[in-house]
Amino acid sequence: MLPSRRHFLMGAAALSAAVATPEMVRAAAALEASADWALATRDLEGDVAPQTLKLIHGRAPRGLEGTLFRNGPAKFRRPGGSATHWFDGDGLMRRFDIREGKATLQARFADTLKRRTETELNAVVTPGFGTAGDARARVGSNNDASAANTAVMVAGDKIWALWEAGSPLAMDPTTLATEAFVTLRPDLRSMPFQAHPRFAPDGTIWNVGTSGDNMVVYHMAADGGLIDAKVVKLPRASYLHDFTATDRHLVIVLQPWVFAHGPMPVINQLEWKPELGTRVLVLDKADLSASRVFELPSFFFFHLGDAWADADGTIRFDVAAGADPRFAVDGARVRAEGRGPVPGPPADLTLITLHADGRAEMVASHIAGEFPKANPRFAGLRRDLTVHTGGETTGRPLPTGLAVHDWSSGRSDAFTFGTGHVVEEAVFVAKPGATTERDAWLINPSINLRSGVTELHVFDAAHVADGPVATWAADLALPAGFHGAWRG
Ligand SMILES: [Fe+2]
Known about the structure:
Layout: H1 3-15, H2 22-33, E1 48-52, E2 54-58, E3 66-73, E4 91-99, E5 102-109, H3 113-121, E6 151-155, E7 158-162, E8 169-171, E9 178-181, E10 198-199, E11 205-211, E12 214-220, E13 226-233, E14 244-245, E15 249-254, E16 257-259, H4 266-269, E17 270-272, E18 278-284, E19 287-296, E20 300-304, E21 308-309, E22 315-322, H5 326-337, E23 348-354, E24 360-368, E25 370-373, E26 385-390, E27 401-406, E28 412-416, E29 421-423, E30 427-430, E31 440-448, E32 453-460, E33 470-473, E34 483-487
Antiparallel strand pairs: 1-5, 2-33, 3-4, 3-34, 4-5, 6-7, 7-8, 8-9, 10-11, 11-12, 12-13, 14-15, 15-18, 16-17, 18-19, 20-22, 21-22, 22-23, 23-24, 25-26, 26-27, 27-28, 29-31, 30-31, 31-32, 32-33
Helix pairs in contact: 1-2
The chain binds fe (ii) ion.
């Protein structure tokens, strides 16, 4: 909030004190307390029944048929105690369906033990990434603490709500009814399984899960069936939210935010040690014991883009690189509180190159970007494009735009909704018969802060700056989600 607006509100309250009604005072206090972006971390009190969205701009492209599933936290506050970190709200699965030119929306909370316990107690008690929890938590395993709130993947005829420190939670893709935690093999029950699986050109899926310096590597078929799982020892116990992969390699970026001993929540167990630099571990998919290590300057990150290897062995991938973990520790708390400035600059979209001779380098685009996603048809293969959210500025959290960055030309094709929108991650959806990366649509929601509703947008990936080709509006605002997946 601008200082002048704050002073104006305070001054107005003082001036009108003699005549103000209690309602006026409460309204002024509410304005003072919440930021204009606070809808992005609002509480949703229940599931959202299926509704038809209203087309408010353009028209649905011919041939665009499918479902965008999105996951994200949607219940943070309870009378007896609240989540104190953005990452610890209860997971809400959203289902945006586009058929025959029409769009519908449905959303349903993941039915986790955490949510059942906290609904019964009317208090958030479960320890999480940034929320301490208390002795009333009923946690006998990792899965018992799962908020199932981070991402979603399509696994055969199910969708899996993904978290990070425990197993995927299977849900029905039509009704969004919660089924059960997925046990890929009896000895993998309740093991960490990260929110960012990587899809290989051969149709199989790779993922990892970490606990300190131990990392489980999962290799799965397209239906989620386990092909193999192995444990790899890491050279450093870094916090790892995401990894990446080429068609032949797993790329594990070990940032200097490392686990030390300490009580929950997770952020209290981590120490920022920039003097360690960033280390990149490259594993051979065909032989996980074959590894190489690269050294880079210190940076902080949550998200990587898909990687690819050139014919000479050079590996490239992009990262939304931050200077330090201030956002993860303090910025996400600010978002959960719905007020205040977020410390530190936004992440900088950056290309990392690992040369065959062992050198590594990173080149910043100097474009503020987060939620990088590539066209899934090119996952693990040579590509030029990354779609990302943009427009974040120091102090004011959350993106206001969308852009496609071309790493070959350095060109950014960007559209800004402005500060009246909170813009969410976009996914590439290939057009029928597509052969190139650009021959795709981008699908993403935003929260229109002025009208107070969630909107769903379709962009042409080759013409982002032209703005959406179609926009539908819901009749309510869902809080901002994290990650989505498209099922055609
Ligand atoms: Fe993520």
